[in-house]
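Researcher: Here's a chain I'd like modeled. Treat it as a single chain, no partners, no ligands.
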Amino acid sequence: MKSQYLLGLGLVSLLMVTCVQKASSKQLMTNLVSANANTPILLRKMQNVDNFGKSAAKTTIKSGSFVSGEHTTQGNVNIVTQNGQTFIELEQSFKTSSSGPDLVVVLHRSPNVIGSTRPPAYSLKRGDYLVIAPLRKFRGTQRYFIPQNVNLADYQSVAIWCRKFNATFGSATLRG
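Model: Modeled as a single isolated chain. C-alpha cells:
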C-alpha cells in the first residue's frame, strides 16, 4: 500500500514537472508584468528580480546620490518607469556597509533624511517612510518594485535603513 502511494506521488510529480517545462517563459513574464496588489506575494516579489524587463524602454523620473549616515553609503539611485510599472534602481556605483542586520530600502518624505535626523543612528520616525523591500545586496545594480498605489509625490528621498536598530545607513535626495 505504501509503495503504491509513493509510486502515485512520483507520477504526479513527474507530470507536474513536465507541464511546468512546457510553459513558455513569455507567458510567465506576461503574468508577472500584469501582477498587482491582489497577486500572491511570491509573484510580486519576483518583480524585484534584477534585469526584469530590460528589453522595454525605461524612463527615469527622479534620481539622486547617496550620502552616508550611520555607515558609509555611496552611489546613485533612480526612480524609473518601465512597462507601466515603477522601480527604484540602485546603480552599479551603489555600495553600503554589510554590518547591519535587516537592511531595507525605503522611500522617505524628507528631502534631507540625514540632515533632519540625529547622529549617530539617524533614526527614522514612524509615518515618515515607506518600506519598499529588504536590501538584497550591499553593492551594485539592483531593482525594487514600487507598488502602483504609492504616490511618489509624497516621497522626496530613498534611504537604506536598518529596521532592527532604527539606523539609517545612507540616503539620497530625489530630484526630477
